[in-house]
Design a protein that fits this description.
This protein is an alpha/beta fold and 219 residues long. The protein is built from ten helices and five strands, in the order H-H-H-H-H-E-H-E-H-E-H-E-H-E-H. It is globular. A five-stranded parallel beta sheet has the order 2-1-3-4-5, sandwiched between helices.
């Protein structure tokens, strides 16, 4: 098979949510000597973009999104198996810490965003739901992340997003981390008001904003 045929097969495997096909195509890519980053970006990621768009349009739903993400991750593990840790780090689009903010136990939206970020090439650390602000800041330092993502699904928990920004400032590390916030009651005006760096209405938009932020960070 030619490189283009293998890339097309990788794309199709994600669009059809077929893990076995994705693994088979990934093995073919390795055998053909295709650069893992090319296979991921020009094959798998293209298929994931199709699924993402269909999800936004209500044509596919969470179960299908998760199946596509599983196929994506299965292929990536094969493609990156022979890469050094340094190369894997360089291949990652960035390191993201994601959570539902303190006082909020709603995590469906957060989980969808996590899935989309992971399937788009980000390294994602999920702290879960109802995460204290102090823990968010401590874990951001511990894992040396690039972006902190916090979801609030209730107006009463939105202030926790502001508290994260404020604590980062108090500890003198605000410049080290970009902060992205979202959730049903959250708006771009709110995120701007509290000093955040990014806001998104949907999971696919969150991926695009995270990519833009990483371009700014890496210059």
């Amino acid at each position: 098979m030619s490189q283009n045929e293998i890339l097309e097969k990788l794309k199709k495997a994600i669009e059809e949510m077929e893990s076995e096909m994705a693994e088979e195509a990934a093995e073919e890519a390795v055998e053909a000597g295709i650069d893992p980053l090319v296979a991921i970006n020009d094959g798998l990621a293209v298929g994931m973009k199709t699924i993402s768009d269909l999800f936004d349009e209500g044509e596919v739903f969470v179960p299908q999104l998760l199946l596509a993400a599983e196929a994506f991750e299965a292929a990536v593990s094969i493609l990156t198996a022979s890469m050094s840790e340094e190369d894997k780090k360089n291949a990652s689009l960035g390191k993201v810490l994601i959570h539902t903010v303190q006082g909020d136990i709603h995590d469906i939206g957060k989980n969808i965003v996590k899935t989309m970020l992971s399937a788009s090439g980000f390294e994602v650390i999920d702290l879960g739901r109802d995460v204290p602000v102090t823990e968010v800041v401590a874990k951001a330092k511990e894992y040396n992340v690039d972006i902190i993502v916090g979801s609030a699904l209730m107006t009463t928990t939105m202030p926790s997003q502001r508290d994260i920004v404020d604590m980062l400032k108090e500890e003198g590390v605000r410049a080290k981390y970009k902060c992205m916030f979202g959730g049903a009651p959250v708006s771009s005006e709110w995120v701007e008001k509290i000093g955040g760096d990014g806001y998104s209405e949907s999971a696919s938009e969150a991926v695009e904003i995270a990519k833009k932020i990483m371009l700014e960070i890496r210059g």
